[in-house]
Amino acid sequence: MPSSLRLLPLAALCAALLSACTIEDRTPGRSDGSRAEAPPSANAPDGIPTGTAADADTLLVDVQMLDSTIRVDMRYRDSGNFTGAPLPGYDANRAFLHRDAAAALARVQASLREQGLSLLVYDAYRPVRATLAMVAWAEQTGQNALITDGYIADRSRHNLGVAIDCTLVDLATGEPLDMGTPYDTFTEAANTANALGVIAERRLRLVIAMAREGFANYDREWWHYSYAAAPLLRFDVPVQ
């Protein structure tokens, strides 16, 4: 991996994270910026309407159509996720984002390639049905603490196509970098600033690359980023 970033102690990492990006306003404890509200409808409590399939065709863009070198491994399409089963609505290994966020992500990828790195996307646009399936799984398996602790909620910026979960890949080896914890780790070890040495360096490198193009990191999850875009619509259109 390129060594242009020196290894940082925790205090310096925290300062750099704060200067590199602004953490978006979130309901306390919610892992993806969502709120514990009723299932979304055309008159959603947060004021964001539900879009149609035609709206999705206009507003959501496959990120690999903008940059085919972005790697995609949508974890909720099969059993390789925390529920141990595919989630409804993930019918293909494709990552869609709001058109503005997708354009910004392509710029991030171009910057990272110059550093010998690539993005690997674990989740992007998420159908509402998949978000609700996560809540149902937690309730059915007796893991309600994941709801009360804020790791799972029934509203997500992923449903709007403006949130992305991603990591870094070393282009020389083709392997994802060790970021200190696996994706979807529900502990404080996944807090972005909770790292030292080379792990801290890698997390900071991702934060800086994403922040330069307008993505804000969620400080409880090193992999999670959101983008401010308009217009916003909530979707329950399957990923196909």
Number of domain units: 1
Main sheet: strands, sense, barrel? 6 strands, mixed
How much strand? 5-15%
| SSE run | HHEHEEHEHHEEHEE
CATH class: Alpha Beta
SS element count, helices: 7
Structural class: alpha+beta
Would you count the extended β strands for me? 8
Give the overall shape, derived from the CA principal axes. globular
Unreliable segments (pLDDT under 50, ≥5 consecutive)? 1-10, 21-43
Identify the CATH architecture: 2-Layer Sandwich
Nearest-integer average pLDDT = 87
- Give the distance, in angstroms, between the N- and C-terminal Cα atoms: 34 Å
Instruction: Give the radius of gyration.
Output: 17 Å
Here the CATH topology equals: Muramoyl-pentapeptide Carboxypeptidase, domain 2
Helix content range: 25-40%
